[in-house]
Amino acid sequence: MGRHGAPTRRGRGAGPGTGTVVVVALLVALLAGAVAWRGWVATTGTGPFLPWAGCERTPDVSVVTTAAMAPVVKDVAADLDDVCARFTVTAEAPDVTVQRYAGDGEGAPDVWLPDSSLLAEEVAEGDRTTVSVGGPVAATPVLIAVPSGLEAPAPASWGTTIVAPTTRLPEPTQSTVGRIALMVGLAEIDALPAAARSTSLSGIGGMLSRVVPEASLLSAHAGGTDPAVFPTTEQAVHEAAPPGLSVVVPASATPALEYPVVTSRSAPAEAVAALTAALTSAAGSDALRAAGFRTPRDRSPVVEGGPAAAALDVEPSPEQAAAAQRMWAAVATPTRLLTVIDTSGSMAQSAASGGSRIEVASRAATGAIQLLADHNSVGLWTFSTRQQGDRDWTQLQAVGELGREDQRARLAFSLGSLATRLGGDTGLYDTLDAAYRRAVEDHDPTAANLVALFTDGVNDDPAGGLTLAQLTTRLREVGSADTPVTVLLVGMGGVDARALAPVARAVPTGGGGGAAVFTVEKPEDIADVYVTMLLRRVPQQG
Question: Which end of the chain has the lower number of beta carbons within 10 A, N or C?
Fold first, then answer.
């Protein structure tokens, strides 16, 4: 008995009882474990970030943002010790998150911090009762990155940058940076005088071959074996800090990525308010600045050469965004183009800009082909009267993909031979009928199907041929909304556009098809014609 009692007596005389020691040890262990857990989730960023004890309820709060912003949001959420909520922060591309709001929005996060206020407003516009959009907690300007040994396009603008052959462009459908560069660049090009606009537009066709994943810009193109000029953000340059990379601020405009807070109506209001307050607090601002972002508290540059706060512009307008989306969809969507050129005797006459009309047509068609990337398909016909028996037209090159089997070279050779093929009158109606039917027969549902017909006059076929009424009937017999074809009637040599308007009206408009009339006097004018086609701005014929 004494041996069992002795330790008890020593314990009473020495300090707290065994029960108290156990309780204290457990509290210390729990405290140490809680600190270790919060430190672990803050370090790994996996979450969820757990609230401290004492909360009656601890709702889960899902937060989605970009890969660049996610580390800061995770750190800030991990430090919200007195908030009764479990935050789970996930990095996701904005174009992926947008899809979560489709339909009933069941998969949408409680909180979304996209890198675009315009994108946030587009989502909110769908249903204002589902989400609300708050002010931005951070921003970062979009700049032109220039590796050592290279120079930015001159003058340094977004218009010159997107069409320059030395640049790379992040995929506009997946990258906000790429989308903004395209939007602002196209708006700048559209505002140029005619001659300068045509020169700039001639580089649009090559854009597709210069598109790269955004993640590769700073890793593969900031130096090394494939250096290139590219648009990026001040934050990305700050984070990567590649040696020898400088930034150029375009004189024309300095758009910025903004990070608004998009909140689901069903999200716990107090938790969301606490997270927003933490991000906009002095400590939150310091954390965002350390990661390379500008904040409402401090809009000053974070990298050498960055633009002053006063130079930052708002994001492009919804109209600019829509135009850019149309353009990019058109550039990325294959074009199936049948070019038909008038080789009647009158095409040997001089053009107003110098040279013969056939030379202008040949150079214009060559320039048009240069606008198109390798995934597009182009063919070439000529027409006059009785070129092959009773047939008014001749196929020089079947429609084929430009990037295969030397199609570009074959087209160039055939275009160069047009001056030797002149003669006859203008069998316009029969030729348009045949070209339209061929386009319908060979219709590619994945492409924009086009016929571009160059002529210096109206229909003039002494041998007879179709009348305008017969042409209209025949085109409508084969035209269908399921196989839309767009016809570009390109007048040359002083031909009155109004004389070609009735021909344009004969072309069926179902399914997005139809026709438009243009006039060109100089080869470079064709750039405007084809970009009009790319933008699908085909005017209605009255």
Answer: N
Q: What is the pLDDT of residue 55?
A: 84
Q: Are 360 and 352 in contact, with CB atoms under 8 Å apart?
A: no
Q: What digits encode the pLDDT tens for the residues 491-508?
A: 987 788 888 999 999 999
The pLDDT-based confidence of 424 (bands split at 50, 70, 90) is very high
Which three-class secondary structure string do you get for 256-285?
EEEEEEEEECCCCHHHHHHHHHHHHCHHHH
pLDDT for 535 beyond 60: no
Helix or strand (DSSP H, E) at 44: helix 18-44
Q: How many CA atoms lie within 13 A of 58 on its CB side?
A: 17
According to CATH, the topology of domain 39-138+259-308 is D-Maltodextrin-Binding Protein; domain 2 (3.40.190)
Q: Among 119-123, 124-128, 391-395, 519-523, which stretch is predicted with the lowest mean pLDDT?
A: 124-128
Mean pLDDT rounded to a whole number for the chain: 84
Whole-angstrom Cα distance, residue 107 to residue 88?
Answer: 14
Q: What angle do CA 207, 211, 217 make, to 5 degrees?
A: 130
Q: pLDDT tens digits, residue range 60-98?
A: 999 999 999 999 999 999 999 889 999 999 999 998 998
Cis status, amide bond into 155, omega within 30 of 0: yes
Closest of 83, 84, 61, 63 to residue 74, by C-alpha: 63
Tokens 């040890």 map to which residue?
Answer: 25
CATH no. for 334-534? 3.40.50.410
Instruction: Give the C-alpha separation, 245 to 239, whole Å.
Output: 12
Q: For residue 48, which of 88, 8, 96, 5 has the smallest C-alpha distance?
A: 88
Instruction: Check if 139-256+316-325 and 334-534 are the same fold.
Output: no
d(CA 336, CA 448): 6
Q: Determine the residue type at 98.
A: V
pLDDT above 50 for 106: yes
What pLDDT is attached to residue 90?
A: 97
Structural Rg of the chain based on CA atoms: 33
Query: Exposed, middle or buried, 342 (CB in 10 Å: 0-12/13-18/19+)?
Result: buried
What's at 263, amino acid-wise?
T
Q: Residue 284 in contact with residue 297, Cβ under 8 Å? A: no
DSSP bridge pairs for 60: 86
- pTM listed for this prediction: 0.68
Hey, CA dihedral for 472, 478, 480, 486, is it positive or negative? negative
pLDDT class of 271 with cuts at 50, 70, 90: very high
Sheet arrangement for strand 448-455: 391-401, 377-388, 335-342, 448-455, 486-491, 514-519
| Amino acid 187: pLDDT | 82
Sign of the CA dihedral running 171, 175, 181, 185: positive
CATH topology of domain 139-256+316-325: D-Maltodextrin-Binding Protein; domain 2 (3.40.190)
pLDDT confidence bin for 519, thresholds 50/70/90: confident
